[in-house]
Amino acid sequence: MTIARNRRATGLVRTAALALALLAGAARPGLAQGATAGGVAPERLVVYVSNEGSRTVDVVDAIAGRVLATIPVGERPRGIHLSPDGRRLFVALSDEHPNVESGRDAIAEIDVRTRRIVARHRSGTDPEQFAITPDGRRLYAANEDAGTASGVDLRTKRVLATLIVGIEPEGVAVSPDGRWVYVTAETSNTVSVIDTRGDSVVANFLVDVRPRAVAFAPDGQRAYVTSEISGTLTVVDARAHRVLASIPLGDERGKPVGVAVSPDGRRVYVANGAAGTVSIVDPDAEREVGTIAVGRRPWGLALSRDGRWLVVANGLSHDIAVVDVREARVVRRIPVGRLPWGVAIGR
Amino acid sequence: MSDPMNPRPVSRRAAACAIAAGAAGLAAALARPHSLLALAAPHTGAPHTGAPHTGAARVGATSADLTRGVTLRIGVASSDGDDPGRRSRERGIRMGAEEASRAAAMLGGAIELREGRASELLAGGIDALVGGSAGECASPGALAAAAEVVYIDTACGVPAAGAAGAAGARRFVFHLAPGRATRRLTMARATGPGTLELWHPALRRFGAAQLNARYRARFDAPMDSPAWAGWLAVKILWESASRLDAARGDTLAEWLVSPRARFDGHKGRALSFDDATHELRQPLYVVRAATAGEPEIEEIALDDAADAGAEGAS
């Protein structure tokens, strides 16, 4: 009953979203034609979307507003990142048995040109979030049920280390210089710091309640951690591995999850899950400076390299929202597969 | 190696349940089935069993108990009564303590469980008391309050108006199970009859699947309401100790009703204690058996008109 109602609603939302997209396309030639308004818009904005429900990865042309290709991946895809050179797409796949590592739990490596899976990396059970080092050689993944994080050599496919981190590890990020890996843990409210020279946990620190995602500022001085139950963004001194501040994010209903930092480091964007919004945070002023309504249950998000476009996966709207960061508004919503989880933006 | 079907009770051996930091904690964790500590040990070096070793890497602004190497001593009140939830509660407390020990060890602190009669535990010196035997609702709370020690009641709920417990005693007593008033209001909201539960092993959203899987892997049994309440009682205490300079007595009692005291019980929203009644504000579940497959579970949160949780997921 509920499902049927939701499906109808989804259909309406999709139709509405398409209509809006068409209207937006007509009214917003900047995005519709891929013109370089102000000289900063990219010629192309290719977005990769992991669809947890349909078990696919969509390749989306966000300028034209259409799905270019759909790559079936077999299992439930969640975390999604491009290699630093933009030629390989990595997608975390897990099966329905979170406590048992099966042959299907893997991080799939997809050749961006051929859109085919070219390798599967074993990274422990139930991989969800991971990060790739800036040199493109290693990948670090959280193993939620095992309470560990694994480092994998992408060339030899060897697991380099399996390290104990907090309970229910979730978010993973590598510092821009490749030295530190931060791993959040939902149940212990901690961040573990892995030193990639020697692969050991060198520090643990406490953040707010139920930390989810983590992102470093481009200069590596700060890191930002979202906490779902506290509804906060924690600012971390990423040199000293020390908490500097905790910023409350407006909406009571908000459950902060995905986080991205602008290329100049002056804005942090947080997807607020149930609140259906993205928060814009000024990290220097340590406060939220605005919110943007993006769709239902925004989860993963990513910024274009020039920082102009923010792309958000709306899990329960089954679409992605493309936000013009300068105008702080959604310029287009593009239907994708079911339950989009995360996005990666092409080079 | 412990038998997951028949785990040892929560430290029958008086004050010696040393699931604490350091070697004892590691040994206890290694004895657990499915533990991956052994796998990780060669790579981790020392930091996991003590304070972070890089000089600059201490926790930022906090000087909370657990980050100063303090041991949080939790008493578990034993009962003689015929208590159907006892085994589950003890298992939940045990898992809570194991997880708390691991988390505390990461920050440099430790957790110690002591089991015994409430009066003896209080005389021996503890930071907080956990109990919840259905047959003994009033006495552990009254004893703890007299000693100015926080008591977490996992099963009884807020006593009816006029029942035992002066305002002074209530100051130190906190309830994880709903009292009669909350039960009545919750059932009035339900779309039909059913059993009112704090937790259910078939819950999946908001990390419930992970918690249920951890419990099942640990005890080869489903996590039921008493198990969840036992687990949460310990989690609330160690989370408080991780935020407070002194997680005991007045300081702890005041903190538990402060706006900053928000806890994650894997129910998809912040749980907090009602300032007046000291009852945990939380979503509850009305469970109805299905003719086939999993039971129907209706989530009801009294303080929530908009049902903010409806859109969450995994």
Characterization of this structure:
The complex is a heterodimer of chains A (347) and B (314). Chain A is built from 2 helices and 28 strands. Chain A has helices at residues 2-27, 29-32; strands at residues 46-51, 56-61, 66-72, 76-82, 88-94, 106-111, 116-121, 127-132, 138-143, 148-153, 159-164, 169-174, 180-185, 190-195, 200-206, 211-216, 222-227, 232-237, 242-248, 259-261, 268-271, 277-282, 287-293, 298-303, 309-314, 319-324, 329-335, 340-345. Chain B is an alpha/beta fold. Chain B is 35% helix and 15% strand. Chain B has helices at residues 22-31, 37-44, 86-107, 118-124, 138-146, 167-170, 180-189, 208-219, 225-243, 249-256; strands at 71-77, 110-116, 128-131, 150-153, 173-175, 195-197, 263-264, 270-273, 280-281, 284-288, 296-300. In chain B, helix 5 links the parallel strand 3 and strand 4. Classes of the chains: A mainly beta (347), B alpha/beta (314). The interface between A and B is large, with 56 and 50 residues.
Quick rundown:
The complex is a heterodimer of chains A (347) and B (314). With 347 residues, chain A is mainly beta. Chain A has helices spanning 2-27, 29-32; strands at 46-51, 56-61, 66-72, 76-82, 88-94, 106-111, 116-121, 127-132, 138-143, 148-153, 159-164, 169-174, 180-185, 190-195, 200-206, 211-216, 222-227, 232-237, 242-248, 259-261, 268-271, 277-282, 287-293, 298-303, 309-314, 319-324, 329-335, 340-345.
